[in-house]
Amino acid sequence: MNDDIVRIFDTTLRDGEQAPGCSMTVEEKRQVARQLARLGVDVIEAGFPAASPGDWDAVRAIAEDARDWPLTPIICGLARATRKDIEAAATALATAERRRIHTFLATSDVHLKFKLQMNRQQVIDRVSEMVSYARTFVDDVEFSPEDASRSDVGFLHDVLRAAIDTGATTLNIPDTVGYTTPDEYFALISGIFTEVVAGRHITISTHCHDDLGLAVANSLAGVQAGARQVECTINGLGERAGNAALEEVVMALRTRRARYGADTRLRTEEIGRASRLVARCTGVRVPPNKAIVGANAFAHEAGIHQDGMLKNRDTYEIMHAEHVGLEGGRLVLGKHSGRAALRAHLATLGHTLEDAECDAVFARFKEVADRKKVVDDRELEVIVAGETHRGSSTYRLELVQVSCGTHAIPTATVKLRGPDDRELVAAAQGDGPVDAVCRAINDCVGDIGELIEFSVDAAAEGINAVGGVSIRLRERAARHDDGDMPAHDEAPKFTASGFGVHTDIIVATAEAYVAAVNGLIRTRARQMAEVAA
Question: Global pTM?
Answer without folding.
Answer: 0.68
